[in-house]
Amino acid sequence: MSSAILAPGFVSRFKCLGADCEDTCCKGWNMQVDSPTRERYRTQAPELLESVTGEGDSTIMKRDPKTDYCVKFEGGLCGIQREHGEQFLGDACHFYPRATRALGSEVTMTATLSCPEIARLSLFEDHTFADENILADRLPQSLQDYLPEGLTSAQALAIHRAFMNAALEEGVSPEHSFMRIFTASESLARITTSAWPGAVPFYLQHADTHLPTSDPRATDPVYLLQALCGLVAAAKYVHHVRLMHTIRDMEHALHVTIRWDTLAIASLPDSAHAAEALYTRWRNEWQATYTPLLKRYLAMQVSLALFPFAGFGHTLPERAAIIGIRMATVRLGLMSILDATNGTAGKNDIVRVVQSLSRFLDHLAGADFSLKIYTETGWLTGSRLRALLS
Questions:
Q1: Rounded Cα gap, residues 115 and 112, in angstroms
Q2: Contact 120, 351 (CB under 8 A)
Q3: Coil, strand, or helix at residue 109?
């Protein structure tokens, strides 16, 4: 039986590249196997049980220790899907890179930039954010409902769309759009959820009158890189080739080196000037061209978080702040590849930067360590966030 789902256009346009994907989800990830899938294997294809490991909610697909690919990855394709059909894939494999959530009676679907093809579609294709009604033959076994008490499904969808529209508003820089979102989020956190339908449009419309004063630090660009590397080291993710390529671009652009054993920063004598020159080139040479792309990145983060109802963080201002810090990190990555190519970075370069950072940041296990780092830098406050993005 098909289910009606509301999704932005890039979801229906997405087709898995299979063997042509430059960073397959079949490598390097613990893809969970849900209990109904395990039961299907047990009763209908018991030989597939040899491909899974773990118990209960910790059951995952086995990976080849030599290649880090899923053991059923064969010739660039999934052997389970080829031999048994798509219905034998667990939810994690079946739905990735899509994310399906409920707002009461409404089911929404979006996708993550950690997939290279989704990055291409959402960052470069036109008219990809307009909502479409699609039919799905399958829903996740554990479909989480994010509708808060005091709101109807229609009200919650209208609130989410208001934040999406704020992220995509024409004539407004993505940095300014984000600060409006953050400022509105701080205001929303002080009132009851039932008051949000009327308050969200008002807070977004009048956010400019409440923007915090910028509190800059000359060290922010380097600390942004160091914070990223701290998260990478804690997650033991330093083996990922595409992400490390992006980090090396950032090191080169800032004239610094991260020492992975201590996470200390080794700086060249001109590193402060290099950071200033990099941001000056962004403002004077590249910003106008890449503002639409960064605006789409912001919208993708709002979409993935089903903002303001879900996301990474414990409170609404934290969830908003983390989106802003991620956008600042991605912007630094874009600056760095533009610096490396003297402004001639191609689409594949841009996709590699955004996708490699998203593959890591969008899939962190929890927010606590990130929040600890960002608290120490002060970036969870409005004045420091505005400085980070200014």
A1: 6
A2: yes
A3: strand
